[in-house]
Design brief:
The complex is a heterodimer of chains A (281) and B (253). With 281 residues, chain A is mainly α. Chain A has eleven helices and two strands. Helix content of chain B is 35%, strand content 26%. Chain B is globular. The chains are: A mainly alpha (281), B alpha/beta (253).
C-alpha cells in the first residue's frame, strides 16, 4: 500500500472515530426530546405531582435540585478555591503537598454512591442533620470539591509566571499579587470549573439517595434541614418504583433535567470562549 | 561621589552552581552603572541580587554570600521588608511585560499596592512618569486602552514609567532594549540620560556599543567574576585587563 493510500485510510478511520463520539449524544438528546416533549407544559414545570405522581407537575423536584445545587456551591466553592490558591500559589513541592494532590486525585475517583454512604454516616446520622438539604449539599459538595480544585488550580497556573514576577518587582506582596493579578486573570477558567462541578452535582442520584432526597413530599421544603425532592432521584423513582407511570412523564422529567444540566454546560462554554477572545496574553 | 550600593564579596549559588563569585563594587548615586559581559557572566543574577528578585525562584536552593549595602544598610539582613526594598529599587525587564491592564493601571499598580489612594496624586504620577519615560505624547489620549495594544518600544517605555511610579531611588534595567528597533532604543537611551538626574541607574546593556554609549561606570563580568570596573571613558578605550580588552574589541564574546 502506498504511503498516500495509507494516509488516506488512516485519516478516514480517525474521522470515523471522531464522528462516533458525536452519535450517542445526538441520539440520547434526540430520543429524550422526541419522547418527552409532549409532557412539557407550563403545568408540568409549575405544579405539584398529583394522583400518585402520574399527573400534575414536577415543581418540587425542580426547586429541590436548584436548592441542592446552590447548597453544593456554598459548601464546596470557598474551600475548593482556597485549596486551589494554596496549591497553585503558595505550596512548595514537599511530601505534604504531594500527599494533598494524591488525596485530591483519589477523591475524584471515589464512586458517588460511596460519597452517599459517607454522607449518611457523617452528616445525616453523626452530625444529626437528618436527611436534609444541608446533608445533601455537604455530601455533593465533598464530591464536587476535587473537580473544582483541579480545574481552578489549572486555571491559576495558566496565568503566566512573568506577571507574578513583575507584580512582585513593583513592590506588591505575595497576596496582593494573587489578589490583583492572578485571580482576575484566572477567574473565567475557575468559573468554568465551578460550573462543570456543579453540573455534575445537579445530575447525581446516589449521593442524595440517603442524605436528602424524599420519595414524595406534598409541599416544598420548609427549611435547610428539611428533606427535598430532586430531579434525578424523582426520575429514578418514577421510572422504577411507580407501577403504571406514563412513559411520557418519565421522559419529560428526564428532558427537564437534561435542559438544566446542559444549560449550565452552555454557560460554561460561553464563558470560556468569551474569555479566550478577551485574553490579551 | 556618593555610593548608592556597596557590593562586598558577593557570591551567589543556584543549587551547586556558582553564578557570582567574590564580586565587590560600589554603585555611584545618580550615575549610570553598566554591567556587561558575555552570556552566563552573571549580569542578570547580579541585578536581581540588588532587589532580591532572585528570592522568587522556586525549587532551587539559593545561597548568598557577602553583603549588599543600600545606603549602608545590608539588604540581606534578617527582618528586612522585601516589598519595601523593591519599592526603593525598581526594575525593568528584558522583554516588556505590561500587566494585562490599561496603560494607566500599569503605571498606578505599584503606588496602589503601597497604599496610595489619592486620585489627584495618582493622576499626577501617571503624567509625570510617562513624561519621564518619553512616552506621554504617544499615549496621553488613550490612557485607558489595554497596555498590550502598544508597540514593543512603547510597552518598554511604559514599563520604565511604571517603575518610576514607585518613586524608587534606584532603577535596574535588565537589557531593556533587547527586543527594540534602533529608533526605540535611541528613545530609551535618551530617557536614561534624563533619569540619572533623579535616580541611580544600573543597566545590563544590549551590546558593548550600548555599554560604551551610556556608561558612567562600567563593570565587566566574566563567568561570575568581576574582571574590571572603571569609568566608561577609560574602560572602553584603555582597559587595564587583557580579557576586558579582548571582549571590548570583539576578540571573543
Amino acid at each position: 500500500m502506498s504511503a498516500q493510500l495509507t494516509q488516506r485510510v488512516a485519516f478516514a478511520l480517525l474521522t470515523l472515530m471522531a464522528v462516533v463520539v458525536v452519535v450517542p449524544i445526538v441520539l440520547v438528546v434526540g430520543y429524550i426530546v422526541v419522547q418527552g416533549l409532549g409532557a412539557i407544559s407550563w403545568e408540568f414545570v409549575s405544579d405539584f405531582p398529583r394522583n400518585g405522581m402520574k399527573e400534575g407537575g414536577i415543581l418540587p423536584a425542580i426547586i429541590g435540585t436548584v436548592l441542592l445545587t446552590f447548597g453544593t456551591a456554598i459548601a464546596s466553592i470557598p474551600i475548593a478555591l482556597g485549596a486551589a490558591i494554596y496549591l497553585a500559589e503558595y505550596a512548595r513541592d514537599t511530601w505534604l503537598t504531594r500527599t494533598i494532590r494524591l488525596a485530591i486525585i483519589n477523591l475524584a475517583g471515589i464512586p458517588s454512591v460511596v460519597y452517599g454512604l459517607f454522607g449518611l454516616g457523617m452528616f445525616v446520622l453523626f452530625l444529626g442533620f437528618g436527611a436534609s438539604i444541608v446533608a445533601g449539599s455537604l455530601t455533593l459538595g465533598l464530591m464536587t470539591m476535587p473537580v473544582v480544585i483541579s480545574t481552578a488550580e489549572e486555571a491559576l497556573l495558566t496565568v503566566p509566571q512573568r506577571f507574578r514576577v513583575v507584580s512582585r518587582s513593583l513592590g506588591a506582596s505575595h497576596w496582593q499579587t494573587v489578589r490583583n493579578v492572578v485571580l482576575p486573570n484566572a477567574l473565567p477558567g475557575i468559573l468554568t470549573g465551578v460550573i462543570l462541578g456543579l453540573e455534575r452535582a445537579a445530575g447525581e442520584t446516589a449521593p442524595i439517595l440517603f442524605t436528602a432526597a424524599a420519595f414524595y413530599l406534598p409541599r416544598l421544603p420548609q427549611s435547610a434541614f428539611s428533606p427535598t425532592m430532586a430531579l434525578p432521584y424523582h426520575l429514578y423513582v418514577i421510572a422504577t418504583q411507580v407501577p403504571g407511570m406514563p412513559l411520557e412523564v418519565q421522559y419529560g422529567t428526564a428532558l427537564v433535567l437534561l435542559v438544566l444540566v446542559l444549560g449550565l454546560n452552555l454557560v460554561a462554554t460561553v464563558l470560556r470562549s468569551r474569555f479566550r477572545r478577551r485574553r490579551q496574553w | 561621589m556618593v555610593s548608592k550600593f556597596s557590593i562586598r564579596n558577593l557570591g551567589f549559588y543556584y543549587d551547586d552552581h556558582q553564578a557570582l563569585r567574590d564580586v565587590s563594587v560600589d554603585v555611584p548615586a545618580n550615575e549610570i552603572t553598566v554591567v556587561f559581559g558575555p552570556s552566563h557572566a552573571g549580569k542578570s543574577t547580579l541585578l536581581r541580587c540588588l532587589n532580591r528578585l532572585n528570592d522568587l525562584i522556586e525549587n532551587v536552593a539559593l545561597r548568598v554570600e557577602g553583603k549588599v549595602l543600600l545606603d549602608g544598610q545590608d539588604i540581606y539582613r534578617p527582618g528586612l521588608d522585601v516589598t519595601e526594598l523593591r519599592r526603593r529599587v525598581g526594575m525593568v525587564f528584558a522583554l516588556p511585560i505590561p500587566l494585562p491592564l490599561t496603560i494607566r493601571q500599569n503605571v498606578t499598580y505599584g503606588p496602589l499596592m503601597s497604599g496610595e489612594k489619592n486620585p489627584a496624586r495618582l493622576a499626577e504620577l501617571v503624567e509625570r512618569c510617562l513624561k519621564q519615560a518619553a512616552i506621554w505624547d504617544e499615549v496621553k489620549d488613550r490612557l485607558d486602552d489595554p497596555a498590550m495594544r502598544l508597540s514593543g518600544g512603547q510597552q518598554q517605555r511604559l514599563c520604565i514609567a511604571r517603575s518610576l511610579a514607585l518613586e524608587p531611588e534606584v532603577i535596574l534595567l535588565d537589557n531593556p532594549t533587547s527586543g527594540l528597533d534602533p529608533l526605540s532604543t535611541a528613545k530609551v537611551e535618551a530617557s536614561l540620560e534624563i533619569l540619572k538626574e533623579s535616580y541611580t541607574v544600573v543597566l545590563v546593556p544590549h551590546s558593548v556599543q550600548q555599554a560604551a554609549r551610556v556608561a558612567d561606570l562600567a563593570v565587566f563580568l566574566l563567568n561570575g567574576e568581576l574582571v574590571e570596573a572603571g569609568p566608561g571613558e577609560v574602560l572602553f578605550t584603555s582597559p587595564r585587563e587583557r580579557r576586558t580588552e579582548d571582549y571590548v574589541t570583539g576578540r571573543f564574546g
